[in-house]
Amino acid sequence: MDFEGTPAWIPRGEETSFGEATTPHGTRFLVEPDLRLLGRDRDGLFIAPGRRTLTPASDTFHPNGILVDGRIVGAWGRKGSRVDIRLSEHLTSAQHVTLAAEVLTFPFSNAHLSTAPESFRR
């Protein structure tokens, strides 16, 4: 199968599911293993689209992704109860509020979002 100009392997019979897939909407935190579904593979175990970098914001301390309307727009990591985000694109105030609300649902006490003010716009 051709995936954005790169040869890729998929299970036989799944070809039509790619054409029928819709772009996700909303703002969500993704854990690092979920990024493989979007084509990121930091260990190089997958071929083709897995070799691309999804966001320049990702590093050793921020290995997880931030998904906004089908695009990876940043990375996040956690230290204690602080969830620190690094963005490669600006967020609207509403998107920032949505991320902060999701952090409150994380399964550890006193979870809170930490980000630089310039990371989102009004």
What best-fitting shape do the alpha-carbon axes yield?
elongated
* Run of helices and strands: EEHEEEEEHEE
Amount of beta strand: 25-35%
Number of strands: 9
Distance between the termini: 41 Å
- Provide the helix percentage: 10-25%
Radius of gyration: 16 Å
Low-pLDDT ranges: 47-51
Describe, in plain words, how this protein is organized in 3D.
The chain has one domain (24-121). It is elongated and about 45 Å long. The N and C termini lie far apart (41 Å). It has helices at 15-20, 93-103, and strands at residues 2-3, 6-7, 27-30, 64-68, 71-79, 82-87, 91-92, 112-114, 120-121. The strands form three sheets. The protein has a five-stranded mixed β-sheet, with helices on one face. It has a two-stranded antiparallel ribbon with strand order 1-2. A hairpin with a 2-residue loop joins strand 5 (71-79) and strand 6 (82-87). The protein has 122 residues and is of the alpha/beta class.
Short recap of the structure:
The protein contains two helices and nine strands, in the order E-E-H-E-E-E-E-E-H-E-E.
Structural topology:
Elements lengths: L1 E2 L2 E2 L7 H6 L6 E4 L33 E5 L2 E9 L2 E6 L3 E2 H11 L8 E3 L5 E2 L1
Parallel strand pairs: 6-8, 7-9
Antiparallel strand pairs: 1-2, 3-4, 4-5, 5-6
